Structures are given as structure tokens and as C-alpha cells.
């Protein structure tokens, strides 16, 4: 406990741990001043937050009005019809429910094609993302001066949507699974390069420095000093990306890239009479996504936490 023992120059002197100190509060802010300053800061922050929220609402409303005016049909006029199409699909699928198992078997090869597109594009994209991440990570890059180049290249790859790349490739190569595979692989490489780089930046550099002292090459330092540390997170992110790529490969089928999405587009384009096929494809796609979500989530939890959740 600090106790006053004397007065020096009109100020109390305290003994604290054997050291003589004097209490000098001249010029120190009072509790009222601190409270006032804090409330002013809170008020400014709330004002800025309110202005930002107001600006966001204005932009959203104006953007919606512009989009609604340019739309072929008004949003509010067609809102009451939003459930018509799903109800027609479900009604026809229920009437022909006996045919659903046969239709599911019919479209199963297209599902396999979709999964193959996602798997191959994920493997190629993960390999590209691995190389880009190591070349663009500070402390690990082989050419440090080129780090901004590799990072900007990764930004470009993930900034362009898969469907845009696929449309360009379909125009050049024609329809089929190859344009979809290339498009998804390029986007995957850019996305995984960003996530892999963030993981690699937290890697311990002591093994890398030790390997460098023995004369190991850059590739050997990365393979033996870095990858063993980051491999669980890398595999986890790759599995997560595989789930995303299954959905992407199905979507790209709508633009002629093959797979289950192509069959779904045809079934929906024909309209009534083939809604049972659309329902069968929806069932296949939904079941596949749920299955791979559960399997990859289990493996990701084992890799990152050491147990299945």
C-alpha cells in the first residue's frame, strides 16, 4: 500500500515500493474532461455511421429503380407470380413421380461429367494457386522484386468470373466440358493463391533458413521447410474450393459447357411436359452438393482440428 510520508513543495510525497514519489496532478485531465471527450468521439462515430447507412440506402433504392426500369417486366408486377414456376414443376413431378428413378439414372452420367469438371479444375487450380502463393509471399518468394507481379496476376484471375472466361473459351474452342474446366481452374488458382499466401505468411522461417544454410534449392526449401507446416490448411481450402466448383460447373452448363447444368437448361427451356426431368436433375444436384459438403467438411475438420465434427 502506498502511504504519504511527507510534504515536498506543497505536494504530498508517497512511499511506493521503497521509492519516494510525489503526486503531481497539475495539468492532468479531469474525469469530466475525459468523459466529455469520449462522448464527443462516440457522437462523431454515430454520425458517420448514420451518414454511411443513409448513403447505402439511397444507393440501393436508386440502383433498384434503375434496374427495375430497364427490366423486361416490373418487379412488383411480377412478384405475385414468383411461386408459379416452382409449383408447376412440383405438380408435374408429383404426377410423374414413378418416372423419377429412371430419370435420375438417365442423367447420372451428366452428373459424373459435372463432378469430373469440378475435380480436374480443382486439382489444376490448386497446383497453380500453390505456385502463385509461394512466389507472392514475403520471405518465401524466389524473386522478391516480382512479388507485386504475381499478386496482381492472382487478383486478375479471381476477379474475372468463371462464366465470363467460359463464354470466351466457348467462342474459341466450342461448347463442351473443356472450356468449363479451364475457366474454373483459372478462377480457382487466383482464389486459392490468395488464401494459400495468407497461410504461408504465418509459417515459421527457421526450417527454411536451416535448409538454406545447407545449400538447399528454393524448391527444396519450399517442399521440406514450408509445405509440411501449411499442408493441412492448404488441403482444407482445396476441399472447400471443390465444393464451390461443383456448383460452378453446374452453372456453367447453362452456357453450353456440358454436364448436369446443360441438361437442366434443356429441360427448363422445353417447359411443361419436361418438368419431371428438371425435378430429377434438381434432386441429383442437391443430393450431390449435400453429400460432398458433408464429406469435405468432415475431412477439413480432421485436418484442421484433428477430429471429425
Automatic annotation (TrEMBL):
The keyword Membrane applies. One of its GO terms (cellular component) is plasma membrane. It comes from the Bacteria. InterPro entries: MetI-like, MetI-like_sf, PhnE/PtxC. It is found in: Cell membrane. GO terms for molecular function: ABC-type phosphonate transporter activity. The chain crosses the membrane at residues 47-67, 115-135, 156-174, 274-292. Its main location: membrane. It holds the Pfam family BPD_transp_1. Keywords: Cell membrane, Membrane, Transmembrane, Transmembrane helix, Transport. It is a multi-pass membrane protein. Belongs to the binding-protein-dependent transport system permease family. This is Phosphate-import permease protein PhnE. It comes from Octadecabacter temperatus.
Amino acid at each position: 500500500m502506498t502511504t504519504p510520508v511527507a510534504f515536498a513543495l506543497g505536494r504530498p510525497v508517497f512511499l511506493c515500493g521503497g521509492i519516494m514519489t510525489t503526486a503531481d496532478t497539475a495539468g492532468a485531465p479531469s474525469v469530466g474532461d475525459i468523459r466529455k471527450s469520449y462522448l464527443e468521439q462516440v457522437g462523431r462515430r454515430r454520425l458517420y455511421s448514420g451518414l454511411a447507412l443513409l448513403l447505402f440506402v439511397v444507393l440501393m433504392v436508386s440502383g433498384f429503380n434503375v434496374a427495375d426500369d430497364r427490366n423486361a417486366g416490373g418487379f412488383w408486377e411480377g412478384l405475385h407470380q414468383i411461386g408459379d414456376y416452382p409449383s408447376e414443376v412440383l405438380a408435374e413431378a408429383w404426377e410423374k413421380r414413378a418416372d423419377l428413378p429412371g430419370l435420375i439414372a438417365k442423367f447420372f452420367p451428366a452428373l459424373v461429367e459435372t463432378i469430373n469438371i469440378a475435380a480436374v479444375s480443382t486439382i489444376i487450380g490448386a497446383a497453380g494457386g500453390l505456385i502463385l502463393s509461394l512466389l507472392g509471399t514475403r520471405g518465401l518468394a524466389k524473386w522478391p522484386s516480382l512479388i507485386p507481379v504475381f499478386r496482381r496476376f492472382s487478383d486478375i484471375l479471381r476477379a474475372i468470373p468463371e462464366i465470363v472466361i467460359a463464354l470466351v473459351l466457348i467462342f474459341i474452342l466450342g461448347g463442351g466440358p473443356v472450356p468449363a474446366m479451364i475457366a474454373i481452374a483459372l478462377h480457382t488458382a487466383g482464389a486459392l493463391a490468395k488464401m494459400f499466401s495468407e497461410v504461408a505468411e504465418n509459417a515459421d522461417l527457421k526450417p527454411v533458413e536451416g535448409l538454406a544454410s545447407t545449400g538447399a534449392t528454393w524448391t527444396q526449401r519450399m517442399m521440406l521447410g514450408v509445405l509440411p507446416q501449411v499442408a493441412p490448411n492448404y488441403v482444407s481450402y482445396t476441399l472447400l474450393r471443390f465444393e464451390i466448383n461443383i456448383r460452378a460447373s453446374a452453372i456453367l452448363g447453362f452456357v453450353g459447357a456440358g454436364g448436369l447444368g446443360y441438361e437442366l437448361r434443356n429441360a427448363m427451356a422445353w417447359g411443361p411436359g419436361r418438368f419431371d426431368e428438371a425435378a430429377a436433375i434438381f434432386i441429383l444436384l442437391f443430393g450431390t452438393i449435400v453429400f460432398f459438403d458433408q464429406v469435405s467438411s468432415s475431412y477439413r475438420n480432421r485436418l484442421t482440428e484433428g477430429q471429425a465434427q
